[in-house]
From TrEMBL:
Segments forming domain HTH araC/xylS-type: 157-253
PANTHER family per record: HTH-TYPE TRANSCRIPTIONAL ACTIVATOR RHAS-RELATED, TRANSCRIPTIONAL ACTIVATOR FEAR
Protein name in the entry: AraC family transcriptional regulator
InterPro entries named among the record's database cross-references: AraC_XylS_family_regulators, Homeodomain-like_sf, HTH-like, HTH_AraC
Keyword Lyase: no
Organism: Vreelandella olivaria
Keywords associated with the record: DNA-binding, Transcription, Transcription regulation
């Protein structure tokens, strides 16, 4: 493997899990890739990138329309770099980083280039990534990114759309976590911090709010509505409905 290997890829809508014996830096100009590394998970897009250390297990799934640039950095060659030690320290653990204005560091699609130009482009890409990391690592930036990072990882609009298609099914925290490329435990804590409720309490609320629309604006039987929103029987549905809305579904109708 050469000193740096830069690839432009479109990551498909399939989940991939693997490790490799070189460091990797991943950025994107468009689209989204869900990526998880050892309990950390975020969405890699034009504003967020990541550093993946050698031999660290990671999982990813693209949206099929992303343009993702991947820089492979062989561990064995870092010692030959003047600042190899600094680069090595960047990869002491998995990291996600903010990348404002990173598009200017990317080659345009269809651009032809000779070897010297490609080397300059690779160097610029690497320097841009290192600069972004150093900016992101400052205390001020870290404080600014905390809540914003959580809201980006937990795309509630996307979760709501998925939940609305599966209200009649059993919904598990593991399924919701996988949509955000997070471990179940990390997803649970982030979700509660963002919404103030647990994931399962949120699902229950979503079921009941959808049920109320059906109760008030449809002629479906209460038993049928209970089934459509994921309750095992009309009795459990009516009890949950009364606890949440302080009125029975039959009275609400």
């Amino acid at each position: 493997m050469a000193l740096f290997e830069l690839h432009s890829r479109n990551l498909a809508q399939e989940q991939v899990a693997h490790t490799h014996d070189f460091h990797q830096l991943i950025l994107a100009t468009c689209g989204v890739t869900e990526l998880s590394m050892e309990g950390q998970g975020e969405r890699v897009n034009a504003r967020r990138g990541c550093l993946i250390p050698s031999s660290r297990h990671h999982e990813y799934q693209g949206d099929g329309s992303n343009r993702t640039l991947v820089l492979d950095i062989p561990v064995a060659h870092l010692a030959s770099l003047e600042k190899g030690g600094e680069i090595e320290r960047l990869f002491d653990k998995p990291r996600f980083l903010a990348c404002p204005g990173v598009k200017s560091a990317y080659p345009r699609s269809g651009q032809s280039a000779n070897s010297a130009r490609r080397c300059r482009m690779k160097s610029r890409f690497c320097c841009c990534a290192l600069y972004m990391y150093l900016q992101d690592a400052t205390p001020t930036a870290a404080g600014q990114l905390g809540q914003h990072s959580i809201s980006e990882r937990l795309d509630l609009a996307r979760l709501d759309a998925w939940l609305d298609k599966h209200l009649a099914d059993e919904v598990r925290v593991e399924q919701m976590a996988s949509l955000c490329a997070l471990s179940p435990g990390h997803f649970h804590s982030c979700f509660r911090e963002l919404t103030g409720v647990t994931p399962l309490a949120y699902v229950q609320r979503r079921r009941l709010e959808h049920a109320r629309t059906l109760v008030r604006h449809s002629t479906l039987s209460l038993g049928h509505i209970a089934m459509l929103v994921g309750f095992r029987d009309q009795g459990s549905f009516s009890r949950a409905y009364r606890r949440y809305f302080d009125v029975s579904p039959s009275s609400d109708r």
